[in-house]
Fold:
Amino acid sequence: MNIRTRNYLLTFAAMLLLAVVAVCALMSLGSHDAAWNMTVDGESIDGIAGAGFAFGGVVIGLAGAVFALALCGVILAGVSLFVMGLFAFILLIVLLALAPVFLPVILLVAFIAFLVRKKRT
Structure:
C-alpha cells in the first residue's frame, strides 16, 4: 500500500469517526425528541439508526461534492493550459508573419553593434 492510499484510508476513517461522534453527541444532547426518522419500504426508521442513516447520506453527499469540485478543478486546469498554448501559437504566427518587416531593422541594429563594439587586445 503506497502512502497516498494510506492517507486516503486514514482520512476516510477520520471522517467516519467524526460522523459517529457527531451522531452520538446529537443523540445525547436531547435531539432524539426531534423527528430523526426515515421511511424505507413503508417502515419508519427513527432514533439512532435514523440519525446514522441521515449522517451517512450527508457523508456520501460531501464525498460527491468533493469529487465534483476536484473534477471541475482538473477540467479548468486543462482548459487553461490549452488556452495558454493557443495564445503562444497565435503569438508565434504573428511574429512569423511580421518577420519580413523586422528582419531589415534587426540586421541594421546588428551591423551597427558590430561596428561600434570595442576591439579586445
